[in-house]
Amino acid sequence: MNDTVDEVVRTAAAESTEADIHQGGVLEVAYTPAQLARLKAFHETELSYGEKDRTLHGARLHPVKLVKGLARTVEALGVTIHESTPVTEIRPKHAVTPYGTVRAPYVLRCTEGFTASLKGQRRTWLPMNSSMIATEPLTPAQWESIGWEGRETLGDMAHAYMYAQRTADDRIALGGRGVPYRYGSKTDNDGRTQPATIEALHAILTRFFPQLTGVRVTHAWSGVLGVPRDWCATVTLDRATGLGWAGGYVGSGVATANLAARTLRDLVQQDSGQAGPADFTTLPWANHKVRKWEPEPFRWLGVHGMYATYHAADHRERTTHTTTSSRLARWADVLTGRH
Ligand SMILES: Cc1cc2nc3c(=O)[nH]c(=O)nc-3n(C[C@H](O)[C@H](O)[C@H](O)COP(=O)(O)OP(=O)(O)OC[C@H]3O[C@@H](n4cnc5c(N)ncnc54)[C@H](O)[C@@H]3O)c2cc1C
Q: Are 118 and 87 in contact (CB under 8 A)?
């Protein structure tokens, strides 16, 4: 995964894709004593995997610029991308759209948070909403009071965690959980964000950076993540049907999707008897099986219950300064399969 970040950076440079990439590493902060205990435990685990003192591989980028650059690159290679053509059903060797059915020896489903809208996939990956805000560009004086010269990606260790980046045009873009999930696995396609979510994210912004209280929020948007029942991403090819899929990255899919795509490519090449350039088919996520989410109303109750519990646990940890993670949050993790 760490090498994959380098691979994305390297490929974007090789293809002259300007995506505001800055490999400044990751800065994880603890806001409370309980978060500090979790951060230390996380750090110990990272060290046991051979990580160095800091996660230097992490990079900030502008995802839309990356996607547009990628599209330009593959179109230049002769690939046709059909936009505004929803696939409504996938069957072996067939992808059904309102305009006709596409036939191919392999059909690969990489629809992440939107997977639930496909026939038969409602309970496969839970469409979890994630929302972000961006401030107006900050002044040099404001940046001087904040610091953050390294432009690391920033995150905390709350149960309902936040994440943020200093953008190329000197804004702060900050994200977290809004309305976590809509009943019946419904997905929004327009990115609209509820005022209450914007307010909640603004409150996190000013809690982290009190000097930004009067700063304007100029953008807010939302999207869906794909969450598997065990919160583990998978890459699968069913050899019998030629159907494949990759996804379930939860909130960390920009680099992960790259490695998943290369794994899926290797699975297809292996199946069709071609030798691939690298073999990722032995990674533990290849053909990993995961059970489906529960039917409604249990899905809705489980996710909303989990986030209500996380918010209560975060509040308790902030107000009591306890050094141990709330038992409630640990119970919610077990119930929803998060750990
Ligand atoms: C607000 C927000 C913040 C995030 N922050 C981060 C972050 O900081 N770091 C990180 O690594 N990840 C982050 N993510 C997650 C990351 O964006 C995703 O994991 C990543 O985009 C997954 O890539 P993908 O190509 O698998 O899926 P997507 O980018 O979701 O693309 C799926 C594509 O499939 C298309 N599609 C869906 N259904 C159909 C259909 N039926 N027919 C045809 N086409 C279809 C969609 O239009 C879309 O183009 C964030 C996500 C959100 C919403």
A: yes
